[in-house]
UniProtKB/TrEMBL annotation:
Keywords carried by this UniProt record: Glycoprotein, Hydrolase, Signal
GO-annotated molecular function: arylsulfatase activity; glycosaminoglycan binding; N-acetylglucosamine-6-sulfatase activity
One Pfam family from the record: Sulfatase
Family, per entry: Belongs to the sulfatase family.
Record keyword Zinc present: no
Name the record gives this protein: Arylsulfatase
Catalytic activity reported: an aryl sulfate + H2O = a phenol + sulfate + H(+)
Modification after translation (UniProt): The conversion to 3-oxoalanine (also known as C-formylglycine, FGly), of a serine or cysteine residue in prokaryotes and of a cysteine residue in eukaryotes, is critical for catalytic activity.
Sulfatase N-terminal domain residues: 40-391
EC number: 3.1.6.1
Root EC class: hydrolase
Amino acid sequence: MRQSFLSAALLAAVAVNSTATPDQHALNNTPLPDRETQRPNVVFILTDDQDVHLDSLEYMPLLRKHLIEKGTQFTKHYCTTAVCCPSRVTLWTGKAAHNTNVTDVSPPYGGYPKFVSQGLNKNYLPVWLQQAGYNTYYTGKLFNAHTILNYFAPFPGGFTGTEFLLDPHTYDYMNSVFQRNKLPPVSHKGEYSTDVLTKKAYGLLAEAVKADKPFFLTLAPIGPHSNINVKDLLTPPFGGIVFDAPIPAKRHENLFPDVKVPRTANFNPDSPSGANWVRELKQLNETNIEYIDHFYRSRLRALQAVDELVEGVIAKLEDYGILDNTYIVYSSDNGFHIGQHRLQPGKSCGYEEDINVPLIIRGPGISANLTTDVVSTHTDLAPTFFELLGIPLRDDFDGTPIPLTKEAIAQAKNSGTRREHVGVEYWGIAGGEGIYDSGLVGPRNNTYKSIRLYGEGYNLYYSTWCSNEHELYNLDDDPGQLNNLLFEEDGPKPSTKPLTLLGYPVSKIVARLDTLLFLLKSCKGQVCVKPWEKLHPEGDVHTLKDALSSNFDNFYEIEQTRVSFTTCQPGYIISAEGPQFDQDGLIFRDGLSWDQWT
């Protein structure tokens, strides 16, 4: 039954003219005099797995010319779950993954079916934008497990016009399948995926300009994600998956012949680092290193077509006469590592390479050629779009609008009340990519909760794994996160752990960070934005610096419950999560208050 349906779907796709592009619908490039010009438009470009720390932005000159030099770059922007689908759902809902319950890339804990079953298809950004009077358009990857079999069950809600990439061919650079509005899927075998998407982007932009409404257009190419070949098309989640290096367009395939992965201190280090399964990784051999250098070059080459897409869209906006009334936002779902901590190519870790992602914004009122380290996360993007477009904020956002003007950024940093924290969470398996995903010892469950804290006088990362191992890094002294200040040495030799950090006992710092993480791992709404204020309703604590007052030693070091797990699970299963903090300040576990449970 499934085989015959799939065959029919693919035959229908092939029957459609796969070389046709939305350019056939294009308008002339004359601005429309009757167009509603008071409300701004948005073009949101969302790449897949693009790094900040491996210098990918340095190899995109057109992005630099049109966005970085004409807009504001946010260097401390973070995803809160370092894998595609959970991160994208967070981005579109303004909610952390523990509140969407979409925590994986495929069922039962994630993917498009989980997004639908959680009721989010009727309650996310494109739906809200349409309710606010915006037309919404999308081309590219929406979510994982959005396939040629389920794209109509139901159709993604909230869109005026779409050209979706569909699994199992989403990541097949030379064999993509797109699906326009509610028409059958169309195969583009032999065409380069990003180039196909670019043509579709121009067509959707033409449709948006023709309509007498402000618009929000999302362009989501797969670059620089790994190329994925799916051998088994019959059994979701489509077995026989082969990961390999991204494939560039033919015109870019010989660029950067001598470029290698940056040889930072944490690249294939001589000594193991991290905790849990990461600490068990073997050092990469020369053959493996040659391959990941090739993989790195392939990522840079795959980004060149994305770079051209940026310039092409800017040119179209200018030709239509609407560039000055359009915000262009550029980001990625998560970051990427290649060789750091001895890791094969991939994401899903809490380390800086995986969670720190690009964010660049250009548009009306946005300062040109400005770089800022104000902290922001993907939970902030939906609230930020609301504020840009004059839509009242929702009470259930776990994020808050990002300060966008030079004045607002300065005020946020000088007031001392701007959020300095990022709550990071992950559940389940950490899958490597490429052909050398080996060297692991023991179980590979990668479930953890962590906090990234960046404020005046401190630059910290703290995590608790489901194994109840802990990590703490001072990134000012250790930007590669190699020296885990909480690692317990094996055997009877004296501990080499430092006794102080930031001029305080390490235990004093950890007590504050653990309490903050305890709130963030189950927070909702404003508690996610202002956790210190929840802990100190008197209003005298807004930052870690405030919380380090000796007046609070007993509160943090004696009274508070610690973050812990009971078991390692593949998804968000409350019974495994240990004590939980609810919005009333009570501690729960397995549905019981902490006092009842103990």
